[in-house]
Design brief:
mainly alpha; 442 residues; elongated; 84% helix
Length: 442
């Protein structure tokens, strides 16, 4: 090998050697860094375990102190120390759960649960009537929520919107009372003035009242009530007065509850949604809002059809000359709120009044009108008005009204259809998908 080749090879060897040395140094530094990282991680773990152990010991010591000296728990600072109060937990750290495997614990839980269920059932039966009033108020408040939302979107505050709704409702009730009281008082005074004439007809065998008196002994029963049964008559009057007073008080209570529910409906919804686990709350909120929207749409749609029934009945009664047209029309509209049977009962009442005051022709015309309107409402108005809110099959509607009426009376019949719509929504969105996923898993 020539000297020039040796000279050219030495720098290359030196560069290779230097590179190898630098790589070795880098590897050593990397190993040292990894060793320091592992040492730091071990130190952090030791520090965390030490902190956990210290916290546990502090908890044990605080609990031991509290157990040994019950007097300390009478002081707020001692309680805060024993409970380990912090900013995140203003009422302290929850205690350890009771052992799950204790037979005594299971027996006690079952016994306490059974007693609690029995007590709740007894309480529900005791306050059944009051709970029905609360349910009715909540139902009406949910139905009026779309109106309140409409006013809020127009710039009004929630409280102002609720006040506007309350004033309008009071105005409507006041208008009905103003329209109903004068005819009723006039009819009562007319009855008193014509009492002698009716008394003569009762004694005349050739009149309708006379024949009824001979058949049912009306005069003898009246005389018995007046002479020998004065106390029972007075008791009956007191009972009627008590019923009227109770109905008035319950109406006021329901009206006040409606205002409170309508004003705090958002807070009530949020409180109910928070009862569910956090990961389920968004879906529960969507389903709950949809149920409330369907109930509100049903109530507003039902009110709309009742208004149509009131206006149509009022026009027919005015044309026929039937007295008390406004009162009877409002009564028909209120009864029309009850599904299936409400409009039929209202039509029967109007027909009887028309028969007694005007004649047979007027009665037949009113009955025919109510039959035609019932068909129009069932096959034209309700499908168009309620299609987008409560899309419930007719057979489901009939069954829901029958079951609701049997369980809760008129209130049950009122809320039966939206309750069926809510159950149908839950079945469609929750129960059926869960069953389908279970079938796929199997």
């Amino acid at each position: 090998m020539s000297p020039s080749d040796t000279t050219g090879a030495d720098p290359d060897k030196r560069r290779v050697a230097d590179a190898a040395e630098r790589a070795e140094v880098a590897a050593e530094r990397s190993a040292a860094a990894e060793a320091r990282a592992e040492s730091a991680e071990e130190g952090a773990e030791r520090a965390e375990s030490q902190a956990t152990e210290q916290a546990r010991r502090a908890e044990q010591e605080a609990t031991a102190v509290a157990i040994e000296s019950d007097e300390l728990l009478l002081e707020e600072q001692s309680r805060r120390t024993a409970a380990q109060v912090s900013e995140d937990r203003p009422f302290g750290v929850p205690g350890r759960p009771v052992g799950q495997g204790s037979p005594l614990r299971h027996g006690f839980v079952f016994a306490a649960g059974g007693l609690l269920a029995y007590g709740l059932a007894r309480a529900v039966v005791t306050v059944e009537h009051e709970l029905l009033l609360v349910l009715l108020a909540a139902f009406v408040a949910i139905g009026l929520d779309p109106v309140a939302g409409f006013l809020v979107r127009r710039g009004l505050r929630r409280s102002v919107a609720v006040a506007v709704i309350a004033v309008v409702a009071l105005g409507a009730v006041g208008g009905f009372v103003a329209a109903a009281v004068p005819p009723l008082t006039g009819e009562a005074s007319q009855l008193v003035d014509e009492a002698p004439h009716y008394a003569k007809q009762l004694k005349d065998k050739h009149t309708t009242l006379g024949r009824l008196n001979l058949r049912f002994h009306l005069t003898d029963k009246v005389n018995k009530q007046v002479s020998g049964g004065g106390s029972s008559a007075a008791g009956g009057l007191l009972q009627v007065g008590g019923v009227v007073l109770s109905a008035t008080f319950e109406t006021v209570v329901v009206f006040v509850l409606i205002i409170y529910f309508l004003a705090d409906l958002e807070a009530i919804k949020h409180a109910i949604y928070r009862l569910f686990p956090r990961h389920r709350r968004p879906r529960v909120g969507l389903l709950g809002d949809e149920v409330i929207a369907r109930v509100g749409g049903y109530v507003l749609g039902n009110v709309f059809t009742s208004i149509v029934a009131t206006i149509g009945n009022y026009v027919v009664l005015l044309l026929l000359g039937v007295p008390y047209a406004l009162v009877l029309s409002v009564l028909v509209g209120v009864l029309d709120l009850v599904p299936l049977v409400g409009s039929t009962v209202g039509g029967a009442i109007v027909g009887l009044v028309a028969l007694a005051t005007v004649g047979t022709t007027a009665a037949v015309i009113t009955i025919v009108y109510h039959v035609v309107y019932r068909l129009l409402e069932d096959y034209v108005l309700n499908p168009r008005v309620l299609r987008r809110t409560v899309d419930v099959k007719p057979v489901v509607t009939v069954l829901a009204v029958l079951i609701g009426g049997a369980l809760l009376g008129i209130i049950g019949a009122l809320i039966a259809v939206p309750a069926a719509a809510a159950i149908q929504l839950i079945l469609t969105e929750v129960v059926y998908p869960a069953r389908d996923e279970a079938a796929v898993g199997v």
